[in-house]
Amino acid sequence: MKREFFANASHELKSPLTSIIGYQQMIYEGIIDDEISIMEATQKTIKEASRMNKIIIDMLELSKLESEIEVKKEIVKINQIVQDILNNYQSEIGSKKINIFSNIIDMNLNMNLNHAIELIRNLIDNAIKYNKENGIIRIILNNQLFSIEDTGIGIPLEDQIRVFERFYRVDKGKSKEVGGTGLGLAIVKHICSIYKFELKLESKINLGTKITVFFTMK
Ligand code: ADP
Predict the structure, then answer these.
(1) What are the start-end ranges of the E strands in the chain?
(2) pLDDT tens digits, residue range 59-68?
(3) Cα of 169 to ligand 1 centre, how many Å?
(4) Which pLDDT score is estimated for 172?
(5) 211 Cα nearest atom in ligand 1
(6) What global pTM score does this model have?
(7) Distance in Å, CA 148 to ligand 1 centroid
(8) Which residues touch 157 (CB under 8 Å, ≥6 apart)?
């Protein structure tokens, strides 16, 4: 598993790095020399470097999760975390004109704060990223569960089991377009396994996806 992870990670990092080297080399050798083309190549370089940065952040997060021997728990206000994350994503939500409907009650869990943030952030991030323009996101939070439903592109049945694997992305082309790392749901799954939360995925292609985290143990 470790070997496969290293192979996948190297591959994922290599493609943006190859682009970065290519663009910089073209600027250095004067193949790209007018101001506009240099600007465009620089922009692409920044985009690829940001992608590498995201992959590394997610890899570090996953490796931290796996190496934690003692998990520091505290009383975490889950409703507050949901609200804070939605606030942080205001510009993405606004530019895609996504409507959010939520039914959230005050809710505390005894867990690690970073785990709670990562769990909810990754699910909200996907519901926005894979949603359509003018799409809807419905969020429910109560004592039993957290669920998030979007009206996005959906996940084909044959991929539904695999999306929780590291680096697995449905339709590589489209996922690349939206800039995912393929590690978000692996992080979500790992956090759920630490707390024995049950995770349920329901999705219909072109209609949307619903992910539910049941706080009650399996
Ligand atoms: P990524 O960083 O690529 O979003 P994830 O591990 O979070 O990685 O998700 C894995 C893949 O599952 C995504 O690349 C995408 O193809 C699919 N996916 C995840 N969430 C959704 C969603 N809400 N709607 C449609 N597809 C999704």
Answers:
(1) 74-77, 99-104, 108-111, 136-141, 145-150, 197-204, 208-217
(2) 999 999 988 8
(3) 6
(4) 61
(5) 23
(6) 0.91
(7) 13
(8) 205
